[in-house]
Amino acid sequence: MNVLGISAYYHDSAACLVRDGRIVAAAEEERFSRTKHDSGFPRLAVDFVLRQGGIGPSEVDVVGFYDKPVLKFTRILETFLSIAPQGFPSFVHFAPAWIRERLWVTENVRRELGVYKGPVLFAEHHESHAASAFYPSPFERAAILTMDGVGEWATSSIGLGEGSDVRILRELRFPHSLGLLYSAITYWLGFKVNSGEYKVMGLAPYGEPKYEKLIRDNLIELRDDGSFRMNLQYFGYVGGLRMTTPKLDKLFGRKRRSEESPLEQFHMDVARSIQAVTEEVMLRMARFAHKETGAKDLCMAGGVALNCVGNGRLLREGPFERIWVQPAAGDAGGALGVALSLWHRYLGNPRTPVATGDSMQGSYLGPGYTDDEIARMLETEGAPHETLSEEEMPGRVADLIAAGNVIGWFQGRAEFGPRALGARSILGDPRSPDMQTRMNLKIKFRESFRPFAPSVLAERVSDWFDIDRESPYMLMVAPVAESKRLAPAAEDAKLSGTARLAGRRSVIPAVTHVDNSARIQTVTKDTNPAYWALLTAFEARTGCPVLINTSFNVRGEPMVCSPIDALRCFRRTGMDYLVLGRRILAKTAQPALREDEKMGALAMD
Which residues are within 8 A (CB) of 218 and not within 5 positions of it... i.e. 6 or more apart? Predict the structure, then answer.
């Protein structure tokens, strides 16, 4: 029985194939189209998941779509009518896309799949999130918390997963939304909505929560159960084309920051303040979910569940024994959620949690490439390289990293979700005090303040970080262990803002944020044997079982998907070596950039 799940038309379109309850493949459209946050119909992702499953469209039994477009369009119409004529410009802006494609999902599916004659079914947005959170989790029974911008009407939900059933118990509804609150402040700080939220989270530790009370007193009325009402006088997203209104400028005493203008301590303090408010809402929602369900475990999904700082606080301070977060927590994961929901709820199949770990297979659900495919590409491109055995590779690469080189690492099947997990990664030595700045500015072409995450051998995580469990999907932040921290130098106390980057806080400074925290990925031999072997080899040489791991891409581009994507990214950046399966390429041995590649590198710089 083959179930195809699809998410599309907002951002991060994706497709997922579930066969007899097992996730066969899942991928975002952007990985193939090379358009970041691609929102179109995921025709390339659909082609991939069907090809990975060895079937054609005629062999799909049922197709599921991750939300209900008619219900969402009804909310949009009701919202614009309620504030008419103010909402008319926004309606004129958004209506063509709805009339052209978003209301015709069934017809679009049949057109794109051609010979498919089966049913096209729809789940509500937060039902898809809840299903993606619970069904792959290791829990037999768990509370479910979903939080994002908005689905049809719901913006957050509390549910219960039990056996093969998922039930939504409570909802918070539009226009009151934790995701939209965070995105509105993201916009006001000069970052892009739906992509800049990570920057706000990374910027927050440089500031102090000086404006937390201002936000609590003016922007949001927060209740003990985590529900809240927003003061819509400060926000423009209900009926306008901007996230905030001039009244927010007056509240903070200055205008919205323009994109790419200098960041001041004020902006860092605002970031810290909205992060603090967000964490408090998450904690209250989680406590209420615990009270309502009596469950000892919690599953999470939705875009806000990617706030790994908040997740870390939930783990440390919340009422739940265990927390599991869907690695593709955003809209892409809705494709997976609706497919699993159809398998269990519509088709009535039982669910048995896996004995160890979860059923996401490490989230390595995207495309993989054979050694022959890689070799043919390198030959076509005229790229000099060396071929190593699987036994030789970990030691050679560990030596290169220990010598200060930055490595592009391309192994196995690509990750599903926004985090690089050791399949499409850029790797470096976390012990180097200048590696964070070097990788940000010369390789990733992004802001220097943004932190990098550590990958660590799962069996060593408690020796290096203040956490006592695995974090396989880089969705938990925890402090660096006291034993690995360094006493601050006297001059460091005088530093403020991003100048604090100069201070060395631990023996792994390149992955230690300014508040001594780190966004952790634990690595096991079972889920990623090649990456585990590399970490093991690096520890044998250095005594450090930790590597810098950041996504294999540059600013403004999706993570690389294919070997040719990786080679092009390698050529245009300051990476020293590229590892493609068993093939290793040295930058110094590569031919000069072509004119089109030079232009690409110049544009990024």
Answer: 231, 234, 251
Which pLDDT tens digit goes with each residue over 583-605?
Answer: 999 999 999 877 666 555 433 33
- Contact yes or no for 222/228 (Cβ under 8 A): yes
Strands 220-222 and 228-230: antiparallel
Looking at 433-495, list the stretches that DSSP marks H as alpha helix, in order from N- to C-terminal side.
435-438, 461-464
- CB atoms closer than 10 angstroms to residue 600: 18
Place of tokens 């490439």: 369
Residues 6+ apart with CB under 8 A from 201: 271, 275, 307, 308, 309
CA distance 160 to 168: 7
* pLDDT 10s digits, 424-482: 999 999 999 989 888 988 787 777 788 899 999 999 999 999 999 999 999 999 999 99
Tokens standing for residue 87: 């909402």
HEC readout, 302-351: CHHHHCHHHHHHHHHHCCCCEEEECCCCCCHHHHHHHHHHHHHHHCCCCC
C-alpha 499/C-alpha 514 separation (Å) is: 10
Q: What is the C-alpha separation between 9 and 40, in angstroms, rounded? A: 5
How far apart are the C-alpha atoms of 559 and 426, rounded to whole Å? 10
* Token code pair at residue 128: 């898809």
Q: Is the pTM of this model over 0.90?
A: yes
Angle, alpha carbons 526-160-330 (nearest 5°): 60
Question: Is there a contact between 509 and 437 (Cβ–Cβ < 8 Å)?
Answer: no
- Pairing of the two strands 297-301 and 322-325: parallel
Strand pairing class (577-580; 2-7): unpaired
Token pair listed for 176: 């009151």
User: What's the rounded Cα separation, in Å, for the pair 18 and 336?
Assistant: 8
Cα distances from 509 to residues 453, 461, 483, in angstroms, run 11, 16, 14
Please state whether 509 falls in left (phi above 0), alpha (psi between -120 and 50) or beta. alpha
Q: Which residue has the tokens 């020293």?
A: 576
pLDDT of residue 491: 58
Asked whether 424 and 416 are in contact (CB, 8 A), the reply is no
Beta bridge pairs of residue 311:
none
Cβ–Cβ under 8 Å, residues 437 and 599: no
- Angle of helix 265-293 relative to helix 308-317, nearest 10 degrees? 50
